[in-house]
Each structure stands twice: as structure tokens, then as C-alpha cells.
Specification:
Layout lengths: L9 H34 L4 H14 L1 H12 L3
């Protein structure tokens, strides 16, 4: 979150909740991509594109947290 005095913003949380649920579905897709990427990197560790795929999957997994943080930061105290 941000470093200002107002850290409790329930309105931003409630507005961002549907988008966070959608981001959670994306994170499940990211988890599946991550597992497939790990398996591919074990089979052929020389593939650098698999590492990029794993980084993309990790970004998708972290998406719900980023969405909620972004929405709560946009709502004034």
C-alpha cells in the first residue's frame, strides 16, 4: 500500500472486488501456465523462452493483489 496516513479504504476495496475476482481467475490460468513452464524447463533447461513464460505466469498469479492495491490507492480518504 502507500505510505500516507490513510490505509483503511473500504470503498476502494468494495469497488475493486469484482475486478479482483476476475484477476483471481487469471491467476489460476497463470498457475497452470507456471506448472507447465516448470515441467518444460525440467525437460529442456536450455530454453530461455520458458523462463519468460514462467515470469508471465508469476505476474498473472500476483494480479489480484495488484488490482486491489491499485483500486484502494485511487479512492481518497
Amino acid at each position: 500500500m502507500c505510505c500516507n496516513d490513510c490505509e483503511c479504504r473500504p470503498l476502494g476495496f468494495l469497488i475493486g472486488l469484482p475486478f479482483a475476482l476476475l484477476a483471481t481467475l487469471l491467476s489460476l490460468v497463470g498457475a497452470i501456465i507456471w506448472v507447465i513452464g516448470i515441467i518444460l524447463s525440467c525437460i529442456c533447461p536450455c530454453c530461455f523462452c520458458v523462463a519468460a513464460l514462467i515470469n508471465l505466469a508469476l505476474a498473472l498469479i500476483r494480479a489480484p493483489l495488484h488490482v486491489i492495491e491499485w483500486f484502494t490507492s485511487k479512492i481518497p480518504c
